From TrEMBL:
Residues 44-110 form the STAS domain. SUPFAM superfamilies: SpoIIaa-like. NCBIfam families: ant_ant_sig. It comes from Oceanomicrobium pacificus. Belongs to the anti-sigma-factor antagonist family. This is Anti-sigma factor antagonist.
Amino acid sequence: MYLDQEHQVDTLILSPRLARLDASVAVDVRNAALPLIDTATGDILLDLSQVVFMDSSGLGAIVGMMKRAGRERRFQLCGLTPGVEKVFRLTRMDRVFEISSTRAEALSGEAAAGAPGAGG
């Protein structure tokens, strides 16, 4: 629906196909992601490179995904556009999430910012 998925090595990569992750779609995106997270056997990477706007509902959906992944798995973000990055910075959630600039950086394990090993 709103979410692409792919697997690389032992990581499930989820990519919202939306320009806006806001109240109108956040619950749907979270509900689409949770079963995928539940059945994933490895780490989770949320690629937000297509999202240019996010509100608190979108942030809440991402927090819900991270909590569902649990502490035993790595939950990372990558590809934050300037507007989305600003939301994470203003809410100080950039200190909670492990954030990489690119997908390649995230998959190599070289987080650019955030809390290493953050998982809920």
